[in-house]
Amino acid sequence: MPELPEVETIKNDLEAIIIGKKISDAKILWRGALNTPAKKFIALIKNAKILDISRRAKILILTLSNNHSLLIHLKMTGQLIYDLHKKIRDSKYKYARIIFFFKDGSALVFNDLRKFGYVKIVPQNKVKDFINDKKFGPEPLEKDFTLEKFKEILKKYPKRRIKQFLTDPSAIAGIGNIYADEICFYAKVAPTNQVGNLTSKQIKFIFIGIKKILNRAIELRGSSVENYVDASGRKGDYVKELKVYGREGKKCFRCKGIIKRIKLGGRSSHFCPECQK
User: Fold this and answer.
1) Of 21, 56, 58, 163, which is the active-site residue?
2) What integer pLDDT is reported at residue 86 of this predicted model?
């Protein structure tokens, strides 16, 4: 958390707000987030203009006008909040780690409660070295991610449990724990099922569920089950539509069975044992 819909929401928000803005300075409140010394980092970003924002898996890529890019990964508790106030106070953001100041007086705050996230600055010709496509599977919402392509990927992991497959970024980029649970529920497939045992019908419904659920979550601006907020500091509304995630012990909306939680690959998995087979 944040997962693909949350990172995509933040990307879309910032795309409309900060493209074209020039960075005047930065305040480094935790150096551990950086991949270079703080003074060098600040020197590299000063007076650079933000030209573009994109996403690969759960990584945000801010393209700068000085032939460098900022790679930002929010990990578990990271936030990126845009602030219009010209005199921003650190105390307003209890877990602020880096604050980017723009020439117009606004700012972008990188918050991170647990300090797992990072902000790396790299030359643009080295971005592919840092975000190696071999480490990531296809983007599930791209047009070229078809049912046929999905089936081809599944064939590579016949012994993998479907929940673990869905959350593996080297198989498919960006689907996290929350949405993998919801996709399995949509397809009426138990998260423990091995990929090689899935029927054609189950595979089709998992594929449809990926597209439908991720798009709907983006439409509702993500799920705020823990620390996630959008670029304006607002919570996402998809949490209201969650069918199994976080509903252990409650009745299934579909069959009235009881939602169960198990550990699978070190992660909690929520499902209905009555209607997910």
Assistant:
1) 58
2) 61
Longest pairwise C-alpha distance within the chain:
59
Instruction: Supply the pLDDT for residue 134.
Output: 74
Low-confidence ranges of the chain (pLDDT < 50): none
Catalytic residue among 115, 267, 273, 274: 267
Question: Catalytic one among 2, 5, 140, 191?
Answer: 2
The pair of three-digit structure tokens given for residue 215, joined into one six-digit string: 């798009």
The answer to whether residues 266 and 174 touch, using CB atoms and an 8 Å cutoff, is no
Which amino acid is present at 94? K
Q: What pLDDT, on the 0 to 100 scale, is given for residue 87?
A: 65
> What's the CA gap between 200 and 88, in Å, rounded?
55
| Residue 254, SS3 per DSSP | coil
CB 105 within 8 A of CB 23: no
